[in-house]
Amino acid sequence: METPFPPFEPNGPDDSARGPRLREIPLRLVFPNLITILAICAGLTGIRLAFENRYELAVSMVLVAAFLDGIDGRVARLMKATSKFGAQMDSLADIVNFGVAPALVVYVFALDQARSLGWIAALIYAIAAGLRLARFNVMAERENKASWQSEYFVGVPAPAGAMLVLLPVYLGFLGMATDRTFAFVSSIYTVFIAFLLISRLPVWSGKSEGNRLRRDLVLPMMLGVVLYVALLMSYTWEVMVFTVAAYLVSLPFGARKWRRKYGTLTIEEPGVGDDDIGRHI
């Protein structure tokens, strides 16, 4: 059926008046973002399971979220599908999976018995995780990066912080009484982990020196990884407690190595301090 008043176009149809056309996007560009969305779903589901007192599933979902959030960037780089949109999605997923979800799970499991002190501790950790991620993004956007950035983190990275802050939950699963005293001690521990996140402590990343491995150590390392995974599947919470303890014990050694090389206990590199933060808020 013809319109009674057709548009007046003396020079023919004008396609520019129709607005931008939708273009097709390759599936490889979408796949990494789907992993990020699944990570957010896992983190939020972990929060729901914690409020339903299904704590083991809740912690498992948070750990799954952290795993997915850790591989989405690598998948994007392997598939040559990196984008600014994906980077923004990844940042939003990080604050949920490494900040909000672990804080709420540990609060519901243990910190709530400390009342307001427990809630304040959970808030401090979540905010510290957000600040840590913001600092990481600012440093990653620099055009001229310091040579040490390929070898050290400034403070404990957020994924490791999520694993560390859940230690009270692991201990509870192993039978430790989650009474009021346990809640107060867990609150202090949560604030301590928050401090490690935003500190300038040099934390060895293992990126630069881990690129090459002696030939005679390849097979023992592979066997060690298999053994660790097997133990993790069979004795999950015992292995998680051991992993947290080993990571915390390793921090002074990384700082000691930094001091021997650079002569300071903390990273005081220009641009990581208050002036740099102020410019990017």
UniProtKB/TrEMBL annotation:
It is found in: Endomembrane system. GO terms for cellular component: endomembrane system; membrane. Residues 217-252 form the CDP-alcohol phosphatidyltransferase C-terminal domain. It is a multi-pass membrane protein. It is an enzyme of class 2 (transferase). Pfam families: CDP-OH_P_tran_2, CDP-OH_P_transf. It catalyses: a CDP-1,2-diacyl-sn-glycerol + L-serine = a 1,2-diacyl-sn-glycero-3-phospho-L-serine + CMP + H(+). The keyword Lipid biosynthesis applies. This is CDP-diacylglycerol--serine O-phosphatidyltransferase.
